[in-house]
Design brief:
Number of domains: 1
Largest sheet: 8 strands, parallel
CATH architecture: Alpha-Beta Barrel
Helix content: 40-55%
Oligomer: single chain
Number of strands: 12
Structural class: alpha/beta
CATH topology: TIM Barrel
Length: about 290
Amino acid sequence: MGFRERHAIRDLGVGVGFRRPHVVQVLRDRPPMDWFEVISENYFAEGGIQRRNLEELRAAYRVVPHGVSLSIGGAEPLDADYLSRLRALVRSLDAPWCSDHLCWTGFGSFDVHDLLPLPFTQATLDHVVERVKRVQGELGVPFALENASSYMEYRESTMPEEAFLAELSERADCGLLLDVNNVYVSAHNHGFDARAYIDAIPADRVVQMHVAGHADKGAYLLDTHGDHVTAEVWDLYRRALRRCGPTSTLVEWDESIPAWEVLSAEAAQARAVRDEVLATPREEQPWASAT
């Protein structure tokens, strides 16, 4: 029995992030949308308008929390207070899973407010596996790690990121959040094959996918979440769907956030791509024979 089946993780469809420019419209009009993702840390405080808004959102939609500052790869001990607040949030939302990034974010009291890459070595793998086990045990729901976009690599790395994630998810028995745009950005920046990366990810571990826009800076691509999804990323998303099957998908747009109608149209595009791929007869789908 695979990871998603064991944890009864179902496909939620296509969702978007719950962001400030759309709060009033979404809560007032309750427009059609399969689900919403929220940034976990924004809702750790008890009471206040943020939590009231979240309660209203949860009354109308399925909501999944996504963190940005757990620092699962950091050297510092995991923050017990952080985990306690995250557990309370997960329970209040009745979230089917929660997620964060494969990265580190600082050292001691210094926080860089960025998602820094890790060296992909056996020592790092051992370190992260133990921390993921603790997080998942504390939360009581499946925990998924997202591949972050990167702009540098470590000389001491001994394996590619996709192999690291595959072994990590197996040893820690956790899920994966496959950010297709991040795969494309990192592949361009470091010169690896994005398609081979997708093909190497353990399909049944993928509980969620992200698609987003990026910026071409000439010498490198920058993951901005501030534009439309490119044709190349849509193609890579098709490949990921053919491999993983129906998987909850989020359209990320966190900078230069457009009107709700534009964001909703981008979600509709993701839905159309999903429908196109999943319309292929089941016996012809790679994921069908793997389940």
